[in-house]
Amino acid sequence: xxxxxxxxxxxxxxxxxxxxxxxxxxxxSVSFPASQSNQPLDGRxxxxxxxxxxxxxxxxxxxxxxxxxxxxxxxxxxxxGQAAVVDASSYGYPQESLTKLPPGEYFVQAVLHKYETxxxxxxxxxxxxxxxxxxxxxxxxxxxTAPGNLxxxxxxxxxxxxxxxxxxxxxxxxxxxxxxxKDTKFIKHIKIQSQKLTEFWGRPMFVGxxxxxxxxxxxxxxxxxxxxxxxxxFPDDFSGFSETPPPANMDTTDYIDRFHIYGYKKIVAxxxxxxxxxxxxxxxxxxxxxxxxHANPYYDDSYxxxxxxxxxxxxxxxxxxxxxxxxxxxxxxxxxxxxxxxGSTGGWEALAAQVFYPDEFNGCFAACPDxxxxxxxxxxxxxxxxxxxYEEGPFRQTPRPAHRNNLGQIQSTLEQTxxxxxxxxxxxxxxxxxxxxxxxxxxxxxxxxxxxxxxxxTGVIDKSVADYWxxxxxxxxxxxxxxKTLGPKVTGKIHIYCGDMDNYYLNNAVYLMEDFLKxxxxxxxxxxxAYGDRFEHCWNGDPNVPNYISRLRYNTMYIDKMLKRMEDSxxxxxxxxxxKY
Length: 581
Hints:
The chain is globular and about 80 Å long. It is of the alpha+beta class. The chain contains 14 helices and 27 strands. Strands 2, 3, 5, 6, 7, 8, 9 and 11 form an eight-stranded antiparallel sheet that branches. Strands 12-13-17-14-20-21-26-27 form an eight-stranded mixed sheet. A three-stranded mixed sheet has the order 4-1-10, with no helix packed on it. Helix 9 packs across helix 10 (483-490). The protein has three domains: 2-174; 187-373 and 474-569, Rossmann fold, CATH 3.40.50; 379-471, no CATH class. Helix 11 (507-519) links the parallel strand 26 and strand 27. 25% of the residues lie in helices and 24% in strands.
């Protein structure tokens, strides 16, 4: 009897608590006034709820456990004064529905991420399809800061457990335009209209670059220079280079949780000044370093390859942008004097450029690259596993991790990361990591958007799309498949570095690539693969300094190896002297 009574009261308490732990039927009405736009707008309305306003709610959406809540709805032709409705049917992250939120006080903010209409050339036989996407506006494809995006001021609200509630949110603010960076003595900026991309996108499309020119450039007009592309995410200006040291009294109270140190901003500033001093020193090699600007309607960069959904960015960079840079800044303009390097996205791009344009580069240095073998697509096998989010047994599922810290402690799962992206944008339009892989690697679907590699809600993998990925963008598979012709062109050129505690498990694919490169014959790869013991993401190959330092030294890390490679492999009559002064 006592056991029955205890069970009854426990059930009563749980039922009562559960009944009080969810808000009543709630509707948010999001609109914008005619003063912000007198024309209908397309886009994605994002409604963010946060428990703190220490930073604006829109800045708090992340994969971290303390993330804010976000809901998203697509709008087409939303008129001034017309309300976009966010209610129980709207998809959200980390809670899928408003009905699952507990009562309490929240700070609410809304954003309208504006879309534009494109007629892109990815249909059968080169026909055009209509898609709506967010055009990059100089911010590097970021819905929080994109110029022209409308948003509301954060407001504090109280959501209660019973009764219907309606909250009005007005998008009466707009993100300002971002000023273009200015040239300096050493940093120059270039932007060209790409004919290849313009043809694909059906409107003028541009690519650009930030170019670091060598000391003595003006004083040595006869010199022509080797060139290295530093691949990576959208660079608004050339970073990590400063002609002035940090102030002695610079504030050092800032704290970086990832590295558990204070004063990281001053460390970054000092490293930038140290690089300037090396760059202008007597013995430093004279060369061009290029950071490419190729933000597009899907992401902050294009992955520097040709894609059915992104367009021919690889060819646009290789055959339109680079020749213009080498013409303006006196590059040697030959493959023996070009190199690529970068980390993470930039690491994949560096290796991809070497693989897809093997004669145009003399070496790649790929640090912590995005998955370079899809047999180890972070923590799962894209070709053999049925589900991206779960390891499945006969009686249970085990969630797959997406992010870990240096101790291996899990901070988010693949399902959580992908559900966040789905809340931010349908049709691969979140502007984030898994969506850009999908946009770059997938074939175009019949609606003009990328075919899903897996169901974004459930994680079930589409094998036909995975097969397409393998043949077109799995770098290890392509090297294996085409080694007879690729091998002679890339032998001695491949260098890969990765921490064995990479936060995104990118070392797993590197292990597979290392095995292939070690054992391949006719010719031997003569490659370099190195691991950093207990080093995390962004490790660049230097085991002698902490990760928070090595990640700031990409521009100096590989110089000696580039010089040796040019000395050992230059063609007869090559210019090895004009740039050595």
